Amino acid sequence: MNAEQWLADYRRELAGAADGAARAATLLRQVGGHAASPRGEVEAWVGPGGALERLRLSAHARALEPDALAQLVVATAQAARASAAGRIAEIMTEFVGEGAALDAVAEHLPAPAASGRDEQDDEDYYANPGVRA
Fold first, then answer.
1. End-to-end distance of the chain based on CA atoms, in angstroms?
2. What are the residue ranges of helices labelled H in 30-65?
3. What is the pTM of this model?
4. Per-residue pLDDT tens for 7-42?
5. Contacts (Cβ under 8 Å, ≥6 apart) of 90
6. How wide is the angle at C-alpha 104 spanned by C-alphas 93 and 32, nearest 5°?
7. In the chain, is it the N or the C terminus that has fewer CB atoms within a 10 Å radius of its CB?
Protein backbone atom coordinates (compact mmCIF):
# COMPACT_ATOMS: atom_id res chain seq x y z
CA MET A 1 0.00 0.00 0.00
CA ASN A 2 1.39 3.39 -0.90
CA ALA A 3 1.42 6.42 1.40
CA GLU A 4 -1.49 8.15 -0.34
CA GLN A 5 -3.70 5.08 0.00
CA TRP A 6 -2.71 4.66 3.65
CA LEU A 7 -3.52 8.32 4.37
CA ALA A 8 -6.89 8.07 2.59
CA ASP A 9 -7.77 4.94 4.61
CA TYR A 10 -6.69 6.64 7.82
CA ARG A 11 -8.85 9.69 7.07
CA ARG A 12 -11.85 7.43 6.38
CA GLU A 13 -11.29 5.71 9.73
CA LEU A 14 -11.09 9.05 11.52
CA ALA A 15 -14.25 10.29 9.82
CA GLY A 16 -16.04 7.06 10.77
CA ALA A 17 -14.90 7.40 14.38
CA ALA A 18 -16.06 11.03 14.48
CA ASP A 19 -19.46 10.05 13.04
CA GLY A 20 -19.77 7.25 15.58
CA ALA A 21 -18.86 9.58 18.44
CA ALA A 22 -21.46 12.10 17.27
CA ARG A 23 -24.14 9.38 17.07
CA ALA A 24 -23.21 8.08 20.53
CA ALA A 25 -23.30 11.61 21.98
CA THR A 26 -26.76 12.19 20.50
CA LEU A 27 -28.06 8.91 21.91
CA LEU A 28 -26.51 9.56 25.34
CA ARG A 29 -28.18 12.99 25.56
CA GLN A 30 -31.55 11.27 25.03
CA VAL A 31 -31.09 8.53 27.63
CA GLY A 32 -33.59 8.36 30.42
CA GLY A 33 -34.84 5.79 32.85
CA HIS A 34 -38.20 4.79 34.28
CA ALA A 35 -39.20 2.56 37.17
CA ALA A 36 -42.38 1.78 39.06
CA SER A 37 -43.10 0.18 42.40
CA PRO A 38 -44.63 -3.30 42.07
CA ARG A 39 -48.10 -2.15 43.05
CA GLY A 40 -47.86 1.13 41.18
CA GLU A 41 -47.87 3.56 44.10
CA VAL A 42 -44.74 5.30 42.80
CA GLU A 43 -43.31 5.90 39.33
CA ALA A 44 -40.06 7.78 38.70
CA TRP A 45 -38.40 9.11 35.56
CA VAL A 46 -34.78 10.25 35.38
CA GLY A 47 -32.84 12.11 32.72
CA PRO A 48 -29.48 11.42 31.09
CA GLY A 49 -27.48 12.34 34.19
CA GLY A 50 -29.68 10.28 36.49
CA ALA A 51 -31.44 13.30 38.00
CA LEU A 52 -35.06 12.82 38.94
CA GLU A 53 -37.20 14.62 36.36
CA ARG A 54 -40.67 13.37 37.12
CA LEU A 55 -42.38 11.56 39.98
CA ARG A 56 -45.90 10.16 40.09
CA LEU A 57 -47.63 9.02 43.26
CA SER A 58 -50.88 7.12 42.86
CA ALA A 59 -53.80 7.37 45.27
CA HIS A 60 -52.62 4.06 46.75
CA ALA A 61 -49.46 5.79 47.98
CA ARG A 62 -51.60 7.38 50.71
CA ALA A 63 -52.00 3.96 52.32
CA LEU A 64 -48.26 3.79 53.03
CA GLU A 65 -46.72 5.08 56.22
CA PRO A 66 -44.58 8.18 55.55
CA ASP A 67 -41.28 6.36 56.13
CA ALA A 68 -42.30 3.46 53.89
CA LEU A 69 -43.42 5.87 51.17
CA ALA A 70 -40.15 7.79 51.41
CA GLN A 71 -38.21 4.52 51.14
CA LEU A 72 -40.28 3.47 48.14
CA VAL A 73 -39.75 6.83 46.40
CA VAL A 74 -35.97 6.60 46.90
CA ALA A 75 -35.84 2.95 45.78
CA THR A 76 -37.95 3.70 42.71
CA ALA A 77 -35.77 6.66 41.74
CA GLN A 78 -32.66 4.50 42.17
CA ALA A 79 -34.19 1.81 39.96
CA ALA A 80 -34.98 4.41 37.29
CA ARG A 81 -31.39 5.63 37.47
CA ALA A 82 -30.12 2.05 37.10
CA SER A 83 -32.42 1.62 34.09
CA ALA A 84 -30.83 4.67 32.45
CA ALA A 85 -27.37 3.35 33.32
CA GLY A 86 -28.17 0.09 31.55
CA ARG A 87 -29.05 2.01 28.40
CA ILE A 88 -25.82 4.02 28.68
CA ALA A 89 -23.86 0.77 28.93
CA GLU A 90 -25.62 -0.55 25.80
CA ILE A 91 -24.80 2.59 23.82
CA MET A 92 -21.19 2.62 24.94
CA THR A 93 -20.78 -1.10 24.22
CA GLU A 94 -21.96 -0.47 20.67
CA PHE A 95 -19.58 2.48 20.33
CA VAL A 96 -16.39 1.30 22.08
CA GLY A 97 -16.98 -2.45 22.32
CA GLU A 98 -15.99 -4.66 25.23
CA GLY A 99 -12.76 -3.80 26.98
CA ALA A 100 -10.99 -1.22 29.10
CA ALA A 101 -12.90 1.78 27.72
CA LEU A 102 -16.25 0.18 28.53
CA ASP A 103 -14.96 -0.89 31.95
CA ALA A 104 -13.99 2.72 32.69
CA VAL A 105 -17.50 3.90 31.80
CA ALA A 106 -19.17 1.10 33.78
CA GLU A 107 -17.23 2.02 36.93
CA HIS A 108 -19.23 5.24 37.12
CA LEU A 109 -22.67 3.76 36.48
CA PRO A 110 -25.06 2.60 39.20
CA ALA A 111 -25.53 -1.13 39.61
CA PRO A 112 -28.65 -2.70 38.10
CA ALA A 113 -31.70 -2.46 40.32
CA ALA A 114 -32.66 -5.55 42.25
CA SER A 115 -36.25 -6.41 41.58
CA GLY A 116 -38.55 -7.16 44.47
CA ARG A 117 -40.51 -10.38 44.74
CA ASP A 118 -43.68 -10.37 42.66
CA GLU A 119 -45.82 -11.83 45.42
CA GLN A 120 -45.29 -10.39 48.87
CA ASP A 121 -47.78 -10.43 51.69
CA ASP A 122 -49.04 -6.98 52.64
CA GLU A 123 -47.11 -6.73 55.90
CA ASP A 124 -43.80 -7.62 54.25
CA TYR A 125 -44.50 -5.39 51.25
CA TYR A 126 -45.21 -2.31 53.33
CA ALA A 127 -42.17 -2.98 55.53
CA ASN A 128 -39.86 -3.74 52.56
CA PRO A 129 -41.36 -2.32 49.37
CA GLY A 130 -39.65 -3.47 46.18
CA VAL A 131 -39.26 -1.79 42.83
CA ARG A 132 -39.27 -2.89 39.21
CA ALA A 133 -37.53 -1.05 36.39
1. 52
2. none
3. 0.68
4. 989 999 999 888 888 888 888 888 899 999 999 999
5. none
6. 55
7. N
